[in-house]
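[SOLVED] Need 3D model of a two-part complex

Original post:
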Amino acid sequence: MKRFIRTYLFSLDHKMIGKQYLITGLLMSLVGGYLAYVFRHQLAWPGSPVPGYGMVGPDQYNGFVTMHGTIMVFWVAMPILLSGFGNYLLPLMIGARDMAFPRLNMLSYWTFFLSTVVLITSFFVPGGPASGGWTSYPPLSDQPGFTGVFWGGHLWILAVALEFTSMLMGGINFLTTTLALRAKGMCLFRMPIFVWMENIASLLFMFSVGPLIAGAFMLLADRLVNTGFFMPSAGGDPLLFQHLFWFFGHPEVYVLLLPSLGILAEVFTVFSRKTLFGYRTIVYATLVAGVLSFVVWAHHQFISGMDPRLAAPFSVTTILISVPFAISLFSFIATLWGGSIEFTTAMLFAVGMLAEFMIGGVTGIFNGSAAADIYLHDTYFVVAHFHYTLFPVTFFGAFAGIYHWFPKMYGRFLNEKWGKVHFWVTALSFNVIFIPLFLLGLAGHQRRIFDPTVFDYLAKYQHLHVIATFAMITMLLGQIPFIANFIISIYKGRLADRNPWKGTTLEWVAPSPPGHGNFENDPVVHRGPYDYSLPGRDREWVSQTEE
Amino acid sequence: MLGWFPENISTYGHGIDHVIQVIYYIVGAWFLLVEGVLFYFLIRYRKKKGVPAVYEPGSTWKALLWVFIPAVLILGFDLGIDWAQAPVWDEIKLSLPLPEQVVRVTGRQFVWEFVQAGPDGKLDTADDIATVNQLTVPIHAKVQFELLAADVIHSLWIPNLRLKQDAVPGRTIKGWFEATKEGTYPIACAELCGSGHGVMKGELHVLNPVDYQRWLHETVH
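Solution:
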């Protein structure tokens, strides 16, 4: 019993902590998905009871929309991509035996677990969960009288604060481990791109989160003791919160995107047997994008009532930030050129992520143009746009990573045939959900309304809501093969050796699964991370440990 | 794509529609090109027996031109889009033409309140016309609005006018529009404002000058 607790609950091993984050995030995605199912059902058939829930009132609707966004960003994308894969892979990839601070790492996970409990609790308190949107704009979120939500709002702020504390502890660990515990010969420019991305994402999070914590504290003080920071009647200003929120909010997008691009780089190189095209260029471009991400925030606020002259400078910075990302994405595509591409499930999800993310990228140009944003802001066009960025990044990225590193984590393969079924159902249903939402946005459909049929100009497009909802249900059902595959393969999957995909990076030098301490002998690094198909070698891959 | 839009009935609406259409063609072409290259690579370079992958680290300037040239082109197109949309934004949000009508709009959970200048053309006089959820304006007249919020943030959303502006408590935000077609059009709220956000619904009535004068007369007396 004591051993069970040490191994599976209060583990100090970065690999177990990574799995804890991963599994918690995946379970929370089921909660987020269930919420989406309930409100999508309401949108398609307003006023009819939702099977598995019942009647949805406008307050529940707002609460569910709010919690769906909150959960998917902070309790799914961040724990899976940043903390889950980061914890599991980062020490392995740099040849370390564990994180620099294993106890802090354990504290980080259990703080996160506590935040999860607080958030889930908020569903069951009187008045229900927070319902002011995941962005929690005051005054709506400020005075409980505006929504009728008292405890739910407090708990929302508390849960988010705990979650940020957890991620900060994780960030400290990532940065320290990377700087202090790299294997002999692992200079910074021999680190896999994934390690770079985790570190840059941690830096972005740590630099951006301060203002939001200040904002959240002021919001809580307003709620508890009527300080009025965001209440004009008390001399405060609601727009201040929006600036603090989006100063954090935009870098946060990259906190999610970067680890996922890291996964993509690892999967692309392994399954195209190519070295990464423009390794240093990608690193520098990402650093530049990271810096720029601190000066684009107000493009979320063109019509918020801020000085309209600010639209011009923020449009320009928004345009500039597209350049480093274009360079990175083109480099990933160039990596495929001349390759020998094998379409494993991991590769399908990685390619799918790139192909779908581009739709999110190009539709961002519409929103980033202030004049076009007057029409498109706060419509379903925006909803479709950010789902086309965040869904591929979060889920395609996570699935690519899971199918790719599952043999390392459990010493067994996931079933590839069911993996491909999982990929095609997910990818196809994803597009059938969100393309109709683009069209609804063009038709002027404002966000977060409970019953679209109230408006004649929207009622005529009701069939698009129905299509999206059917596709959403299909997507949820499409996850059943994945869940079954995951559980069954842990015990019954085909056995994998330590390097099943013939990869070059250090995690493939360790046994599958690696024991506590990771490596039998501390690895010594002699070369960069992606020496595939190197001329003059008789083998098509050269491990980082080979001379 | 413009087929999905509700009919435009404002003087500046076609500017917005035009910007959206220009962006659509530019990013549409880029999107097809890049996805085309991606899928071409995926098919052309799929694993074949006896065909090894090439080694190309992309570490020379010559190789990197393949990514830098398209990136610079994208920067050029982006700046072009920015250049094209700026005058539209300036006309709508930065200029404030001399008003022929003034109306004070207040968002309140969960109604739009309108106070309109009566025959004297001034607000805050005895002949002001106060209405709830019903806004009546003359066609071809520059209507200036003062937008306020009584409780939480709302967003005045009149799709046919291509008009959207957040209403923020503590601020008075001025703006304008000029309607070009008679009829009745929907008014909505675009910013989540509480449980009644989805039923915050009004109507804009655009009348010809004769009907408008008759409406004004009947309403005041």
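Edit: Chain B touches chain A through 88 residues (CB under 8 Å).
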